[in-house]
């Protein structure tokens, strides 16, 4: 394969896709092959997709440079979506699942190891193609994040949404830091923050990926504007945030089946999306239209909603009600047995000012086909519906990339104790609590520059969690109690951490009744500088109330 690429380069071939493996995953010999391939690219100007790629496909021209068997299927529909995947087999899965849902692709690419061309660069090259409306990404890593961010910002400028599914939600994710933050923000949280900062919507289910892009095409971010007030409190949460913050959007659910709608509302609520009850004015409009609707979060028009005139009137009211940003009809069995009646009012309302998405409770392929053909976002399962709606509502406008990301040289890996850390942050003008360092073998009560009561803490770079090691005594009232506290700390730490000797302690004023915050910072190898803010204190990992952002 390497010699073939070299020959292509000499002959002036501009791009080659390499299906062979045995490169980055093959140890020392693989690294040598990678170096040879990159050298060929540099000397001849040829660009390479792969290795370990399953190729490139353009369904509009039927150019199929792939070994994926899924493309042997006849009558593959061409569409307006471009799909890019780290996994080779997934482009076939996206193709076949998309076809089953009436979704066509303009092109698909399997990028493999990205030894030369990255996923972001390849997608960026298609941005000005008028036949591509949006992008579907299947990501395995955050490799070449800078190129991905550059592509995402350019796609946003052109109004072309990006929907991504990323592997890696396991506990094996690397830690952000040692103190608490490892449990609060691992590798997947970094990916969440990075994708959100790029304006890329992220789903957690494969069905959400397949079915979600039409919804994004109807809901450009920010939707609604960030920090806009909500009459009903918090709805869709921003990535990684607790229930106290996030962007607000109001979703109206109208249904012919109360039980089926509840199946949709449940995962929506779990995803942080609140369902909004109609206002008094909206309920009045229903009454004037002769539709009996009870004051509840779900607008249940019952079996009467299976009639065209009833459902169409309900949709006309909801899509013009000021309290809603998205209307979600949930249709019951009539979608399977009378699709021409059940979904016709939804199709006829597709051009309304407020976006509409539909969820069908039964298996109703004919109804789904009607909705897809009309460009109405539609979902087969409550889980995919909730996944895609939450992803669409979380999406925000991307932030520009910093002009230059400083990546510091590796340090010596040494942990800092509390005094050394405080000295470091003081250089940046960050104040810290007053403190006195005492020898742990002190025999007489010392004079302190602040009044009792005080807190006594073990001072050791080896102890990240002082409370767990028995290294903290609160409310020390006087000098005698101070000596006793030091003795207690030394004894407890020796019992719980036999290999750690406490030679010094830290004494600080006792303060209570204030809030604690945890702030974490690090330069991620892929995403760049990150800042995390979280609820602090000994219950940090219990609350898990935190927000992570690119710096």
Strand order of the largest sheet: 4-3-6-5-7-8-9
Q: Mean pLDDT score, rounded?
A: 88
Helix count?
19
Number of strand segments: 21
> Which structural class fits the helix and strand makeup?
alpha/beta
Helix content estimate? 25-40%
Q: How widely separated are the two ends?
A: 42 Å
How much of the sequence lies in strands comes to: 15-25%
**Main beta sheet strand tally, sense and closure:** 7 strands, mixed
* Radius of gyration, in angstroms, nearest whole number: 29 Å
- Shape annotation: flat
Unreliable parts: 172-183, 224-247
Polypeptide structure, described:
There is one protein chain. The protein has 551 residues and is an alpha/beta fold. The protein is 34% helix and 19% strand. The longest helix has 18 residues. The radius of gyration is 29 Å and the shape is flat. It starts with a helix and ends with a strand.
Keywords, please?
alpha/beta; 7-stranded mixed sheet; 19% strand; 551 residues
Topology:
Elements: H1 2-10, E1 15-17, H2 27-44, E2 47-49, E3 55-58, E4 63-66, E5 78-85, H3 88-100, E6 105-110, H4 119-124, E7 134-139, H5 145-157, E8 162-166, H6 181-184, H7 187-197, E9 201-203, H8 206-218, E10 251-255, H9 258-270, H10 280-288, E11 298-300, H11 308-319, E12 326-331, H12 334-337, H13 339-342, H14 344-348, E13 358-360, H15 365-373, E14 378-379, H16 382-394, H17 418-426, E15 436-439, E16 454-459, E17 472-476, H18 479-496, E18 504-509, E19 517-524, E20 528-535, H19 540-543, E21 546-550
Parallel strand pairs: 1-2, 5-6, 5-7, 7-8, 8-9, 10-11, 10-12, 12-13, 13-14
Antiparallel strand pairs: 3-4, 3-6, 15-18, 16-17, 16-18, 19-20, 20-21
